[in-house]
Structures are given as structure tokens and as C-alpha cells.
């Protein structure tokens, strides 16, 4: 044993003041260095790193699975057709053809709590004079009104012409929305009046910069089912353009 170690032995032995780890974690154990002094050694840290890595990979896989599921859900439905005239970030100018819709009025903000969504869903699942099932489409359109709102389902492509089954429920009406040019802003999140108002103000501000006039009543489009996480949802607010760019 060298001189340095003999000199070190004259000093008091090393005592760690480090606190013990909380229960459930690897304990603080001791070992001896080459001079016989105590030194703290933590064992089991590699297992913690491995566990954290596995949890991170698992969480990433879950998020990827949810995103894939949401995209697959949207891909399974026909969507209202349109042509993009111009894009700028989340803003677009679109041309829509005439759209045939089944619509119903709802009180309040048009959340469907009064049965508005159920009435329309009942119509497309056989609640019509022909007992015909009609494919679901996206988006669900909601237009606010003074006394509530109007909710509408767009008819699928195969019913864009020809006869449409008459609703059995008198509260459901079939009509055609006129073709037109619309300014559109896409946004995410769950449905709320505050979020809708914020999106509408952003769209109006953008249109003002572009020198575009618009109708006063917006139309909101919702593409995803309620179980979709808010950050993955596709929502849109639309205003009919009066003066074309």
C-alpha cells in the first residue's frame, strides 16, 4: 500500500451526509476505495433509465395510434366537395358547389343536446319514408341564429342528384345550399363558444387584410367524433365571400 493511502488512514473515515433514497427506489449502498475509505455507490440506476425509456416509447406509440385512428375515421366518410382557390397557413379561399343537406333547428348554441344530432342521425339510419340508410358525411355544419342554430348533414355524392328520401320527422328538412366562394379558417380543440368566437375574429381579421367582404352569419364545420382528443380535431369556421379576390 502506498504512502498516500497510509497518510489518508490518519484522517477520519469518510461518512456520506447524502439522504437515503425514498422508499421504492434503489437504496444507497457503500463500497471501499483502494485506500480502504468508504464511498457512496448507487446501484440500480440503469434499471430506472430503462423503465423511463420504455414508458416514453409506449406513450409515443399510443399517440401515434390515436392519430392514425383519427385519420382513418375521417377517411371512412365522404366529405363535402370543394376547390381550393388560395391557401395561406390555416386560411383558405374555397369554391363550393351546391350542396344538398338534411337540416334541423336546435335551440341554444346548437350543441345537439336537445336531440338535433339524434334527429339527423335517425334520418340517415332509416328514419325516412323509404326506410333507406344514408352514408354519414363530414363535416357536420352548424350555423348560429338569433334563437338557436341550424345543424346540417351533407348528402353523400350518390345523392347529389336525383330524388332524396323524405324525412319521417317533420323537424328534419331537405334543402339545397347555393354554390359560393368561402373564406375558411381551420382550428383545433373541443367545441366551445369561446373558441368559436376567437376563430371567427381571426378569420374576419384575415379577410379584412385581404380586402374581402363577407356575409354576417358564419358556418362552423366539425369533422371528428366526440372521443377525438382536442388537439387532433379538425374544426373550421367559414364565411361566404361577397367580393371575390
Element pattern in H and E: HEEHEEEEHEEEEEHEE
Spatially, the strands of the biggest sheet line up as 4-5-11-13-12-8-9-6-10
Uncertain parts: 63-74
Label the CATH architecture of the largest domain. Answer: Alpha-Beta Barrel
Secondary structure class reads alpha+beta
The overall pLDDT average reads 80
Describe the biggest sheet? 9 strands, antiparallel
CATH topology of the largest domain: Multidrug-efflux Transporter 1 Regulator Bmrr, Chain A
**In the CATH hierarchy, what is the class of the largest domain?**
Alpha Beta
Q: State the end-to-end distance.
A: 90 Å
Helix content: 25-40%
The CATH superfamily of the largest domain is identified as: Regulatory factor, effector binding domain
Radius of gyration: 31 Å
Estimate what percentage of residues fall within beta strands. Answer: 25-35%
Short description:
With 245 residues, the protein is an alpha+beta fold.
Amino acid at each position: 500500500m502506498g504512502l498516500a493511502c497510509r497518510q489518508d488512514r490518519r484522517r477520519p473515515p469518510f461518512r456520506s451526509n447524502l439522504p437515503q433514497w425514498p422508499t421504492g427506489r434503489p437504496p444507497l449502498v457503500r463500497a471501499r476505495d483502494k485506500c480502504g475509505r468508504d464511498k457512496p455507490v448507487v446501484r440500480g440506476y440503469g434499471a430506472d433509465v430503462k423503465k423511463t425509456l420504455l414508458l416514453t416509447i409506449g406513450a409515443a406509440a399510443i399517440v401515434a395510434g390515436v392519430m392514425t385512428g383519427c385519420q382513418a375515421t375521417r377517411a371512412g366518410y365522404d366529405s363535402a366537395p370543394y376547390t381550393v382557390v388560395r391557401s395561406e397557413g390555416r386560411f383558405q379561399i374555397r369554391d363550393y358547389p351546391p350542396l344538398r343537406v338534411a337540416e334541423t333547428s336546435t335551440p341554444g348554441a346548437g350543441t345537439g343536446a336537445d336531440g338535433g344530432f339524434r334527429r339527423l342521425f335517425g334520418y340517415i339510419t332509416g328514419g325516412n319514408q323509404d326506410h333507406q340508410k344514408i352514408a354519414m358525411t363530414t363535416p357536420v355544419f352548424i350555423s348560429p341564429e338569433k334563437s338557436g342554430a341550424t345543424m346540417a348533414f351533407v348528402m353523400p355524392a350518390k345523392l347529389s342528384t336525383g330524388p332524396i328520401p323524405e324525412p319521417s320527422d317533420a323537424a328534419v328538412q331537405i334543402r339545397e345550399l347555393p354554390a359560393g366562394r368561402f373564406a375558411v379558417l381551420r382550428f383545433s380543440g373541443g367545441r366551445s363558444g369561446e373558441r368559436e368566437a376567437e376563430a371567427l375574429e381571426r378569420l374576419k381579421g384575415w379577410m379584412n387584410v385581404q380586402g374581402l367582404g363577407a356575409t354576417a352569419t358564419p358556418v362552423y364545420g366539425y369533422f371528428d367524433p366526440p372521443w377525438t382528443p382536442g388537439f387532433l380535431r379538425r374544426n373550421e369556421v367559414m364565411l361566404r365571400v361577397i367580393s371575390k379576390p
